Amino acid sequence: MLWKYSTLLPLVVFLVVGFEFVINRPCNDELGFGLLLFGSEEIERLKLRALEGYGEEIWGLSFCVVVDLGAGAASNMAGSGKHGSKNVGMHVCTVYGMALCAPENLPLKTLPFCDALHSLRSNLNDPNNVLQSWDPTLVNPCTWFHVTCNNDNSVIRVDLGNAALSGQLVPQLGQLKNLQYLELYSNNISGPIPGDLGNLTNLVSLDLYLNSFTGPIPDTLGKLSKLRFLDLSNNHLSGVVPDNGSFSLFTPISFANNLALCGPVTGHPCPGSPPFSPPPPFVPSPPVSTPGGISATGAIAGGVAAGAALLFAVPALAFAWWRRRKPQEFFFDVPAEEDPEVHLGQLKRFSLRELQVATDSFSNKNILGRGGFGKVYKGRLADGSLVAVKRLKEERTPGGELQFQTEVEMISMAVHRNLLRLRGFCMTPTERLLVYPYMANGSVASCLRERPPSQPPLDWPTRKRIALGSARGLSYLHDHCDPKIIHRDVKAANILLDEEFEAVVGDFGLAKLMDYKDTHVTTAVRGTIGHIAPEYLSTGKSSEKTDVFGYGIMLLELITGQRAFDLARLANDDDVMLLDWVKGLLKVKKLEMLVDPDLQNKYVGAEVEQLIQVALLCTQGTPTERPKMSEVVRMLEGDGLAERWDEWQKVEVLRQEVELAPHPNSDWIVDSTENLHAVELSGPR
């Protein structure tokens, strides 16, 4: 048996002989070999350091061997530096009572991004234990809730919106060099916005909406060249809104309801600066008389009038002749008129001619899809960028231009990484068109059911990301838009996928907008069979809970790969409605038959159960029993699903007992969807 440990003999000799040397002499530039003694946690930390790019230099040794004594035996080498590494200051410290060499200026216990998140956690009050998973003993933050990492284990997203947090932010957040999304909206975080956030050079979205931040807006945020979404509204910020760098991209809505802010973008002049005023009105100069008694102004006016008449007469005659000869569909553009009451900020107003050229006169070969609102065409603008042009098919009514512009403005203000960004619009007396970025990967529906053989199916991790991303987008429409936007047609075909297969909710805002306090009653039900909530279908009343129902059906599409309404299921004596089909299979405990065969059993069963639970909670018959989209987001992130599911099961048991009891009236109308036995699905694991 001793031969098994013979490989440890040189280590023991070195340890005995060199222990006194290591204890009494700090590591220095001349030390060419260092023995580092670790427990298993320290080895994991070293591995993570290597992933972050520190493995070659932080130890300051030409070559480092890592030995795991915490497990009772020598392990394989977990990492090593390269010869020629630059030394740093070293000192002697101990781990598990053993001496080792460690960097003087970099604590052994954490990585920089761990330091930043640990500091944030310790600086925030968390009454609901949202940060419970942020365990300092777990080195890898990629396992924490509300933290997202990329494939290199770098933190790219921190989402703590609507979490009832208070306290202050910490400057260490500026160490998260790869962070792309920082979302802290709807909390009670106070104090200043750290200027160190200007070091987050990869930041795309900064959402601090509805907190209690005070002080000035750091001008260092102007250095964030990749920043595309900024919401500092509804805080207590003060001072001048900076106008440098990326600040030029943002409109007043990014800074609204900060009463002490001033500057041109807010419309409030700063103390000591001249008030904003419109340009002086044009005053014509007095006419200059000519020797013949006719003023020069009059002569010019007469010439202009005659020229204008000729200018308009010739094209009009030519157009009439052309139209008589070519009676097919045509487009006639008119000069865009500026509306002084509508300010569309950074939104571009395209001419119809631009979009005709981009889409090859709306050629059928460029049709990307058809929907309830019109056809969508692929186009290429003059700058080479690809766009999707939605040509609305609604009939035009006189005086509808201002309403259209107002609704376009509202849509353009809904900016979130999981919402399809409106790039521009076009409006003529006969046409209404919306211009969006082109989504290269199509829609969730096309990826599930219409993908070419060469395209791999959506894998399970991607489907989970789509579920969470689309939920976040809908939550933003409901909770962060004023007035809130009800989608009214949430389905897999309206969830688009960008280059990274991130979910982007499309077609929002095309239905009527509703105000915070009013229940919107529509003249016609908009939606798709199988996705329409029962109360919307029967009463025409839509609300946020209408979208929640549609989202639940979309989740089932993601899991099963099937259509929400499919007559082909009748061939197997199955239900045509996806929701009824799913409930039927769960009733006979055939969960495995629900999952899309394209996944080829490469999924986590517990996660499938959790998504089905969320879907069933979202598709309850009574709107008030469905969760809000913000609650759906939290459940998908692992917060509160178990409690909500247990509560639902208890209600279902009582409901089934009532339905099984004899009733004097046997002619009651029962919901077409079957009730699910409360024991069919286990709780979240």
TrEMBL record:
Residues annotated as transmembrane: 299-322
InterPro entries: Kinase-like_dom_sf, Leu-rich_rpt, LRR_dom_sf, LRR_N_plant-typ, Prot_kinase_dom, Protein_kinase_ATP_BS, Ser-Thr/Tyr_kinase_cat_dom, Ser/Thr_kinase_AS
DNA repair recorded as keyword: no
Residue ranges constituting the Protein kinase domain according to the UniProt record: 362-649
GO cellular component term of the entry, any: plasma membrane
Alphabetic keyword roster: ATP-binding, Cell membrane, Glycoprotein, Kinase, Leucine-rich repeat, Membrane, Nucleotide-binding, Receptor, Repeat, Serine/threonine-protein kinase, Signal, Transferase, Transmembrane, Transmembrane helix
EC number: 2.7.11.1
Signal peptide residue numbers: 1-18
Name of the protein this chain belongs to: non-specific serine/threonine protein kinase
